[in-house]
Automatic annotation (TrEMBL):
The protein's name in its UniProt record: CRISPR-associated endonuclease Cas1
Binding site for Mn(2+): E155, H222, D235
CDD domains assigned: Cas1_I-E (cd09719)
High-level lineage: Bacteria, Bacillati, Actinomycetota, Actinomycetes, Streptosporangiales
One GO-annotated biological process of the protein: defense response to virus
Swiss-Prot/TrEMBL cofactor(s): Mg(2+); Mn(2+)
Highest taxon listed in the record's lineage: Bacteria
Length: 340
């Protein structure tokens, strides 16, 4: 959308296909359109002032995640087609910011969730992930063997340095972050813009986490909240997005509104989505990312837990031994039409 005229931009339909992470992993953001199933496929349609219906057909078979922004409606047959093809469908705010909920295909793999849970449950592995997050945020490798408390101090020092640099840039008094929601109305414009911008960023991150099938609650740095992992991932991008944006709005009369608007029109947060996917995969299991990408398009059945055989064995197999042992073909399994 253009930033020249906000009213005009908000009334213009958007279909923003984002760069693909792989052939089977792409995101589409849509707003102010009606998504319907026709005889030949699923399409996004709009009606012109003269009553003419314009249709754009959507690539349901190669779409990883569909974000439904404001002004969008979708019919049940169209939604069912997306879910049959393994597409996660998310309802979001304008420009992909904010996250209201998601539909996940019932056949979706738990590959990344299993890696997340395994890393979360292992203290040594959890510390490795926390260290990797620090390195990604500041492009600086912490000293070997530093405990979590030292990582927090290093992170705090880096953020204070960033605040000082931005305060100097805009010729402001030293900045102090204030989280007190009870005194929110008395906060300065920077704190208000920072809070609103972070809420928008959390929405985009939550969408990515939902698409990968991970848990938003199992964080590696943050702990004890339903969105702990959302906060972990969002912290990777604040220094280059929400923090400089908040300082740039230090003189705004409406810092919260202006922060959300600029994130949609200038920063275009949804364009960070492919990078977020890659970063989360790298953090959870860098050695398995390529393997999973290749497996995304393959038909899969549920696996069976096997602690003595490497973690799991294939489902759809009779393990009784003898002549009866064979793989069960897909045609004999109770798989919904289009399932994989």
């Amino acid at each position: 959308m253009s930033a020249d005229n906000p009213r005009t931009a908000l009334a213009r339909p958007t279909l923003a296909m984002l760069p693909r992470v792989s052939d089977n992993l792409s995101f589409l953001y849509a707003d102010i359109v009606r998504i319907v199933q026709t005889d030949t496929g699923v399409c996004a349609e709009t009606e012109t002032d003269s009553g003419h219906i314009q249709r754009v057909y959507l690539p349901t078979a190669s779409l990883g995640c569909l974000l439904l922004g404001p002004g969008t409606s979708i019919t049940q047959p169209a939604l069912a087609t997306f879910l049959r093809h393994g597409t996660t469908v998310v309802t979001s705010g304008s420009g992909g910011i904010l996250h209201y909920g998601a539909w996940q295909p019932s056949e979706k793999s738990t590959f990344w969730l299993q890696h997340q849970v395994a890393a979360y449950a292992d203290e040594a592995r959890r510390l490795e992930v926390a260290r990797a997050m620090y390195e990604m945020r500041f492009e600086e490798t912490p000293p070997a063997g530093v405990p979590v408390g030292q990582l927090r101090r290093l992170e705090g020092n880096r953020m204070q340095k960033l605040y000082r640099n931005l305060s100097t840039k805009y010729k402001l008094q030293p900045f102090r972050r204030n989280y007190d929601p009870g005194a929110w109305d008395r906060q300065n414009p920077i704190n208000k813009a920072y809070g609103a911008a972070n809420a928008a960023l959390y929405g985009v991150v939550h969408t990515v986490i939902a698409h990968l099938g991970c848990s938003p609650a199992l964080g590696f740095v943050h702990h004890g909240k339903q969105h702990s992992f959302v906060y972990d991932v969002a912290d990777l991008y604040k220094a280059e997005t929400t923090v400089p944006l908040a300082f740039s709005l230090h003189a705004s009369d409406f810092p919260e509104r202006d922060a959300r608007y600029r994130l949609r029109t200038h920063y275009r947060l949804y364009r960070l989505i492919p990078r977020m996917v890659r970063d989360i995969q790298y953090l959870l299991a860098p050695e398995d990312a390529e393997e999973e990408d290749e497996a995304e398009g393959q038909w899969r059945v549920v696996e069976l837990w096997d602690p003595d055989g490497g973690g799991s064995v294939g489902g759809g197999v009779n393990y009784g031994g003898g002549d009866a042992a064979r793989a069960v073909p897909a045609s004999e399994l109770d798989v919904p039409e289009g399932g994989h």
